[in-house]
Amino acid sequence: MEEVAVEALTEQEAAVYDRQIRVWGVEAQRRLSRAHVLVIGMSNVLTELCKNIVLAGIGSLTLMEDAPSVSTVMNTSFLIPVEQIESDKSFLTECAESLKDFNPMVHVTVEKGSLEEKPDDFLNNFDVVVVGRSLLKYRMHVNSLCRKRGPKIAFLSVDCRGPLGEIFIDLQTHTYVLKAKENVPHSLQNLVYCSLEEAIAARWDRLPKKTTKLFYAMRIMEDFEQSNSRLPGQVTLDDLASVLDTRKRLCESQGMPETLVPDKLLHRLLYAEAREHPPVCAILGGILGQELLKVLSGKGEPLKNFFFFDPMDGKGITEEIPRPDDTPIIMQSAEIEI
Amino acid sequence: MATPEELAVIEKAKVLMVGAGGIGCELLKTLALTGFKDIHLIDLDTIEVSNLNRQFLFRKQHVGQSKAKVARDAVLKFKPDIKIEAHHANVKNSDFDVEFFKQFNVVLNGLDNVDARRHVNRLCLAAGVPLVESGSTGYLGQVTVHVKDQTECYECQTKELPKTYPVCTITNTPSKPVHCIVWAKDLLFARLFGDRNQSSDLIVHTNDRTSSAATADTDFFNIKDGETPESYACRVFDGVFGDNIEVALRNEETWKSRKRPRPLYICEVYSDAKKPRIDGSCNSPDGNDKHTASAARILGLSNPQEVWTVRDSANVFLKALELLLNTRQKDIGSLVFDKDDQLAMEFVTAAANLRSSCFDIPMQSLFEAKGIAGNIVHAIATTNAIISGLIVLEAIKLLMGNLDDCR
């Protein structure tokens, strides 16, 4: 794929973006500058994401507070100077002003009201929608809106619970350039993603044995919060017994033993309550930011379709759920006659 | 959020950060949010515009100011109750001795060169303080942990030396753009504007020394009495791109298995066109500001991504040479190449391109040439953010005494 005619960037863009243009090229930078991103929710990990994509030079960033959740971001975030915490302006407005300051070339606004109140084609204004901590049904709703509306809208979601984090990506279909290597020229690749609903509907007893346990643990937390009318993040260690019951119920319905999800993991998720571990927010916000930039620039292979991080693993883990080849994989130690 | 045990250790820890740039800004922010309360920060650098795409604690109005100080001020705005001591200084400064290092529980590096990393490594070993090393380039980054007597130190693994090229490749047989850029920067630019008394590899002889190019004359590159900048520039052009190549061609052995270069003379380049106006009196309004004075712009070549033609390159060569002679008289003889010196960069790009055209090597845009000549490290915010998170996670493990958990 040859770089097309080299139309000049503005002098300011060329000066500020010099070091990143050397990474992804002028054409990708131009595509970023025409991109419109909607971020629903604000949490520590989302402040990291917003910082990253604003610095990268997207066209516009719209902030919206829609799905209620509990977050500690208003207590401390690097976006808001302490002296402004008590100001009259809304938290999102403060965030927007700060982000504008990071890169005046990006249009940052706050959209008031909820998604429900917006006209049907509201989401069409965006190339990407990112949803933070929220009830599963809210995320599925937004994901289905992204899939229904005219032009393809990429959907990404992220939640960080203490030191544990999960990212989900649905690009519907995505074409990207695979860089030339050795004797292989540049080529166009195509990926097909499943919806959030399809991913969540995947039977646990058909997933590969080594699938990270954090995937299942997050589903248990979602179910617990939903069933107990809790806001996402509104949990404490006092809920452990109840969460273990949820685990029992879910594992049974999925044909899996309870040992699938260690007590310790659920303990850590509950201990976190609504907090997010800052170094993990930096990591997740960086990964999510990079995925978003890949989607917008069409360069680089995006993640498909879940990413997990647990410092105790010492690595990030990508899972494809469900797998495209729907061959059932025997999870249990079934006796096989030889 | 850290566990209560971790938090207790974090809040009491005294941390030294070396570097307040790409990794440093992200790291200082992450440390502050994680609960660290006592941080020293050393950085000798000042802020530049090209930092702003990722060093997010800095704004346009901070250009020229100390990175360490501005970073500290920015973080105190959202975490006013912590202690950050900023040192606008070189970490190799004797103030930062073993005693200084001993006061810290851990040292975190966010440096961009091996020399400083070695220095810090040795001090950490001498002081018995654990070191978390890191680095990043584009999408790649890494974090390593070094604890005296328990892990290998930073220098245990040999580091790749910076790439150098054999002199004969640069002077006689270039085959890649970088060879021409190095020639233009380290030989031609240095000879014309730098120390005249240094011996130069710019001169070309035949192997049997029976003939030399006109450039062999020690005074060749000095402007003659009464010589106009125009005729000087043309004389230099013909000398290095014409005469030198003619002489080199006489060494038959060299070209037995290599493509023969073609000499290039002014009269060929301008056979059907006018040379750019060189009137010896430069009235460009920004002529004295080395960051904005530009020959390319005067010539209408305003897109740094565009690759110039041979004619364009010749135009820039002549014009930049004229502007340098006229506006930097006092520096001539001691000028050192700086990639951010616009005229110098344009001159080097033009000269490298002209040489490339003689040797049938693809020419480079100003943007590409600057990257090569200036050894620019490409960089983005996301990689540094991820690295900062990993550094803090490792630092916490170290402080907790969990060396086995460290990656």
From TrEMBL, chain A:
Keyword list (alphabetical) reads:
Nucleus, Ubl conjugation pathway
Q: Which pathway is it part of?
A: Protein modification; protein sumoylation
Residues of the THIF-type NAD/FAD binding fold domain: 17-315
Q: Tell me the compartments it is located in.
A: Nucleus
**Is the Transmembrane helix keyword given for this protein?**
no
Q: Does the keyword 4Fe-4S apply?
A: no
Biological process annotations from GO: protein sumoylation
Question: What do the Gene Ontology cellular component annotations say?
Answer: cytoplasm; SUMO activating enzyme complex
GO MF terms, alphabetically ordered:
SUMO activating enzyme activity
Which InterPro entries does the UniProt entry name for this protein? ThiF/MoeB/HesA, ThiF_NAD_FAD-bd, Ubiquitin-activating_enz, UBQ/SUMO-activ_enz_E1-like
Q: Which Pfam families match?
A: ThiF
PANTHER family xrefs: SUMO-ACTIVATING ENZYME SUBUNIT 1 (PTHR10953:SF162), UBIQUITIN-ACTIVATING ENZYME E1 (PTHR10953)
| Similarity annotation | Belongs to the ubiquitin-activating E1 family.
Instruction: Tell me the protein's name.
Output: Ubiquitin-like 1-activating enzyme E1A
Automatic annotation (TrEMBL), chain B:
The residues covered by the THIF-type NAD/FAD binding fold domain are 5-402
Record GO cellular component, one term: cytoplasm
Any one Gene Ontology MF annotation carried by this entry is: ATP binding
> Which InterPro entries does the annotation name?
ThiF/MoeB/HesA, ThiF_NAD_FAD-bd, Ub-E1_IAD_1, Ub_act_enz_dom_a_sf, UBA_E1_SCCH, Ubiquitin-activating_enz
Mention one GO biological process in which this protein takes part, according to its record: protein sumoylation
Q: List locations, semicolon-separated.
A: Nucleus
Q: Which residues form the Ubiquitin-activating enzyme SCCH domain?
A: 313-370
Q: What is this protein called?
A: SUMO-activating enzyme subunit
The species this protein was found in: Ceratopteris richardii
